[in-house]
Here is the input.
Amino acid sequence: MSERSERTMSTHRYPASDREAIYRVIAERRDMRHFAGGEVDPETLQRLLAAAHRAPSVGMMQPWRFCRITDVRLRSSIGELVREETERTAEALGERGAEFSRLKVEGIADCAELLVVALTEDRERHIFGRRTMPQMDLASASCAIQNLWLAARAEGLGMGWVSLFDPERLAELLGFPVGAEPIAVLCLGPVDEFYARPMLEETGWTTALPLDELLAENGWPADGVPTTTPSA
Ligand SMILES: Cc1cc2nc3c(=O)[nH]c(=O)nc-3n(C[C@H](O)[C@H](O)[C@H](O)COP(=O)(O)O)c2cc1C
Here is the structure.
């Protein structure tokens, strides 16, 4: 590295302990499906949502909308939508369907807080950065969810991203305007312990790929890119 690069980097670098904390939270964030009930105090929830809201977004469109579910009947209806889609997914998975059915894929009944994240309606008017890739709105909202996920882990709270639902039915259930699209049901709250490894690995569903197999220079990896265990 050049002397100049070294100098400018060290000017802006965080202290070692801060850097370690960042890498640690990234490594120790887990998708959680087992929760210990309880609650999330309002100040912490506000901090988490503010962290989500600081996310980058294409053309600064801030497409995310957060809906906090506090009505127990709504929570139970969302749980039902997820159960239905989980069954359909098991059917669609063919020979791995029975194995899939044994996985725990959500913690809706036990988490302290349930949040639905949606893309706002009327996204078509945002063209900056989306003309050729309209899905950059989803990418932006995903950045917000990742912020929330990492901040929650640092606060000692678990979070699980549930995407097993029919977005149109969930939008209808929550009275969202036409064009608004739910992308996540987030289970958030205290957990007894964090999984040491991704649960899909712990249960033998799949194995994560090492970074070096996914990294290439000036093109695609010569041997092609391997994939994780196919679902079916
Ligand atoms: C966009 C997205 C949707 C997901 N949807 C679900 C889901 O519906 N149910 C589930 O159990 N896990 C879901 N996950 C969690 C993944 O299974 C999990 O991130 C992956 O297995 C790696 O584990 P880790 O997050 O603990 O590192 C989702 C993750 C992402 C990023």
